[in-house]
Amino acid sequence: MKLLGTALALAALTSAVDHQHALKQGDSRPNIIVILTDDQDLHMQSVEYMPLLKKHMIDQGTYYKKHYCTTAICCPSRVTLWTGKNAHNTNVTDVHPPYGGFPKFVSEGLNKNYLPVWLQEAGYSTFYTGKLFNAHNVQNWNSPHPAGWTSSDFLLDPFTYEYLNATFQRNQDEPVSHEGEYSTDVLAQKAFGLLEEAVDLGKPFFLTMAPIAPHSNVAAQQFPEPRSTPFTAAELMQVKMTTPIPAQRHKDLFPGAKVPRTANFNPDKPSGVSWLKHLDQLSAEAVQYNDDYYRARLQALQAVDEMVDELFERLASYGLLENTYVIYTSDNGFHISQHRLPPGKECGFEEDINIPLIIRGPSIPVGGETDIVTAHTDIVPTIFKLAGIKPREDFDGSAIPLNKTGLQQAIGERQEHVNVEYWGNALPEGKHWFSLDDGKPVFYVNNNTYKALRLIGKDYNLFYSVWCTNEHELYDMVTDPYQINNIYHSAPTEPERTILNLPLSKVLPRLDALLMVTKSCKGATCVNPWSVLHPQGDVKSLGDALNTNFDAFYMLDVKEKVSFDKCELGYIVESEGPQALGLPVFGQHKEDL
Ligand SMILES: *[C@@H]1O[C@H](CO)[C@@H](O)[C@H](O)[C@H]1NC(C)=O
Ligand SMILES: *[C@@H]1O[C@H](CO)[C@@H](O)[C@H](O)[C@H]1NC(C)=O
Ligand SMILES: *[C@@H]1O[C@H](CO)[C@@H](O)[C@H](O)[C@H]1NC(C)=O
Ligand SMILES: *[C@@H]1O[C@H](CO)[C@@H](O)[C@H](O)[C@H]1NC(C)=O
User: Fold this and answer.
1) Which residues carry this modification: 3-oxoalanine (Cys) (predicted)?
2) 590 Cβ partners below 8 Å, 6+ apart?
3) Is the Cβ atom of 363 under 6 angstroms away from ligand 2?
């Protein structure tokens, strides 16, 4: 036994050495770099204030204009980003325990099952600097270490959002405070150090640079002491998120820059459902505060812009540009003053979910722009494809096309939907939104739980949501791009609204059935949810499903719709109503959900 064991070990060792050797000799797989900003919007034009990002990425790569996060808050979105799974399949649905944060990522077994681990197994070296997940902090950083990184230098809570007093933690070393230094500049130097290490190793590498800009600044003293038990609402309400802090050299830029005055900017009539429809219109003073806050975000992004410039300079000097893909995105979007909202995220509005995605690399059309629908669940499958790894069956997304032919084929063929979901709180950001009396936020919402669908097809463009209060929203974004008129209930005096010339009474049952599938889809059914409703494969889009041949099926056979019994702060299935479509158990539909 012992001998055999040794022989096997020796064989394994020899093969590992061979493998290493082969890699050094000629592994021509591309390097992959992700630049991940925090809370960066697409709809308030933040990208247009980044000339160096434009020069190196937008002008030299392809801009994916219909890219979406699936849960509009940091930790759940980042877990989705690095696992390729929707939050309903990771059950990391919040930023803090018990429903989220780094401890929940670990307890769900995901620390053994996410991108860097898979990339290392496939022969890549892997590097990360910046914010990984929330609640990854100065106490739990080594219990356990985030797995899968050849070399890493993480930002740690409670100092993550201190622009001028960050704490970084490198490899197995103790955390180090960077008091008085500018977080993004420290991070850039760390990233370039990691890049050098990667180049020295001489095999294909993956590197993420994850600065906090343009997130709010959060003072560490306001964080409750890190601990294993959940924070209370009262403790969380002490955490004040204030105006982002730009680097000293950028603090006077863009005088007069203001939040774009779009149709949904602080509207005269409230919009949205649930807690949103009770928001007061913003005062002139609040609008002014929000504009200042907005300008600070643009300024804070300038250090990121400079980091992008230096990255490309370095890639060029290493001779790596020809074999490196660079992916630029954010964890989620952001709103300021739209729908009367204070600065923040967590909503299903387009400002919160439709986010920047720009990719540059060897096969990618230069100066390209596309409207194909992509989501954060597609990023890991895309990286797998680049690394030549077979996709996992539990991926909830599919690879994003990265060449001209692929991009052209995707038009009309690629999925038209995004599954959007959220559980728990909505919190205002910016100190204006904290009461002077007790320092607590002016609102604290604990019923911001909803399931939604974003659908962008030929001749239709829809957002549909069902809330834990059982309210519904339907926006026809062809005629109402700013999501002001909820047409779910047309007034009785108005003629019934139509979509594709069909009355809503025909469209809604299709949307309800689709949402029933997407809200708890897994793997392939997330990419093609219609296959659950039409197993014979003749329906691939809402347009197909609207065929009158299917009227009876949608009106009579599909018995159950998404509904809630209760608003919860996490993914508590028992409070989330029916879980199956309730299809009749005969014929082709017996493989019910
Ligand atoms: C900066 O952070 C360190 C801990 O890492 C802390 O000891 C120090 O007081 C902080 N400085 C300021 C000005 O908040
Ligand atoms: C282009 O991308 C498509 C899929 O997106 C892929 O099937 C094809 O092989 C790629 N072509 C080249 C030349 O790389
Ligand atoms: C939602 O939560 C807010 C704040 O906790 C509360 O004021 C409101 O009544 C709740 N709405 C519903 C429909 O539960
Ligand atoms: C998600 O996690 C929470 C907290 O651990 C747990 O109560 C809940 O049952 C989990 N939901 C699912 C669907 O596993």
Assistant:
1) 74
2) 583
3) yes
Same domain, 143 and 31: yes
pLDDT in tens, 558-577: 999 999 999 999 999 999 99
| Domain-embedded: residue 355 | yes
Q: Specify whether 367 is located in the same domain as 237.
A: yes
Ligand 3 centroid – CA 200 distance (Å): 56
Cβ of 403 closer than 6 Å to ligand 2, yes or no, is yes
Burial class, 74, CB count within 10 angstroms (exposed 0-12 / middle 13-18 / buried 19+):
buried
Give the CATH number for residue 368: 3.40.720.10
My answer on whether 298 and 410 are in the same domain is yes
Single-letter amino acid, residue 585: V
Clarify whether residues 397 and 540 are in a common domain: no
Around 490, how many Cα atoms within 13 Å sit in the side-chain half-sphere? Answer: 12
**Which residues line ligand 1 at a C-beta cut-off of 6 Å?**
159, 165, 167, 177, 179
Pick the residue whose CA is nearest to atom 4 on ligand 3: 445
Residue 184 is assigned to a structural domain of this protein: yes
Residues 78-130 have pLDDT tens digits of: 999 999 999 999 999 999 999 999 999 999 999 999 999 999 999 999 999 99
Clarify whether residues 59 and 149 are in a common domain.
yes
Note the pLDDT tens digit of each residue in 444-479.
Answer: 899 999 999 999 999 999 999 999 999 999 999 999
Residues involved in catalysis = 74
Mutation choice for ligand 2 from 28, 359, 403, 407, CB with most ligand atoms inside 8 A: 403
Q: For ligand 3, atom 8, which residue shows the shortest CA distance?
A: 275
> Lowest-confidence range among 413-422, 424-433, 502-511?
424-433
Picking from 418, 445, 465, the residue at the C-terminal end of a domain is 418
Of ligand 4's listed atoms, the one at least distance from the Cα of 573 is: 13
- In this structure, the residues whose C-beta lies within 6 A of any atom of ligand 3 are 275, 445-447, 469
Task: Name the pTM for this structure.
Answer: 0.94
* Domain that residue 145 falls in: 6-418
Residue whose pair of structure tokens reads 């990184």 in the numeric block: 149
- On the 0-12 / 13-18 / 19+ scale of CB atoms within 10 A, 579 is middle
Number of compact structural domains in the chain = 2
Residue 274 CA, closest ligand 3 atom number? 13
Which of 273, 279, 445 for mutating ligand 3's site (highest number of atoms within 8 Å of CB)? 445
Half-sphere exposure in the Cβ direction for 525 (13 Å, CA)? 18
What are the residues facing 401 on neighbouring strands? Answer: none
- Please give the Cα distance from 558 to 552 (Å, whole number): 9
The residue-averaged pLDDT of 173-195 equals 98
Q: Whose CA is nearest to atom 8 of ligand 1?
A: 179
Indicate if 414 and 496 belong to the same structural domain. no
Segment 314-367, tens digit of pLDDT = 999 999 999 999 999 999 999 999 999 999 999 999 999 999 999 999 999 999
The residue among 369, 384, 418 that closes a domain is 418
